[in-house]
Amino acid sequence: MTLHSEIAAVTDRIITRSKPTRDAYLALIGRARDTHIERPAMGCANAAHAYAGTEEDRPALTAAKAMNIGIVTSYNDMLSAHAPYYRYPEQMKIWAREAGATAQVAGGVPAMCDGVTQGYAGMELSLFSRDTIALSTAIALSHGMFEGAALLGICDKIVPGLLMGALRFGHLPMVLIPAGPMPSGLANKAKVAVREAYAEGKVGRDALLEAEIGAYHSKGTCTFFGTANSNQMMMEMMGLHMPGAAFINPGTKLRQELTRAAVHRVTQIGWHGDSYRPIGLCVDEKAIVNAAIGLLATGGSTNHLLHLPAIAACAGILIDWEDFDRLSKAVPLVARVYPNGAADVNGFEDAGGMPYVIRELADAGLLHRDLMTVAGEDMTDYGRKPRLDENDTLTWADPGESGDDTILRTPAAPFAPEGGFRILTGNLGRACIKVSAVERDRWTIEAPAAVFHDQAAVLAAFQAGELTRDVVVVMRFQGPRANGMPELHKLTPALGVLQNRGFRVALVTDGRMSGASGKVPAAIHCSPEALGDGPLSRVQDGDIIRLDAEAGVLEALVDPAEWAARIPATAPPEADGMGRELFGLFRANANEAERGASPLLTGMGW
Question: What positions does the domain Dihydroxy-acid/6-phosphogluconate dehydratase C-terminal occupy (predicted)?
Answer without folding.
Answer: 407-597
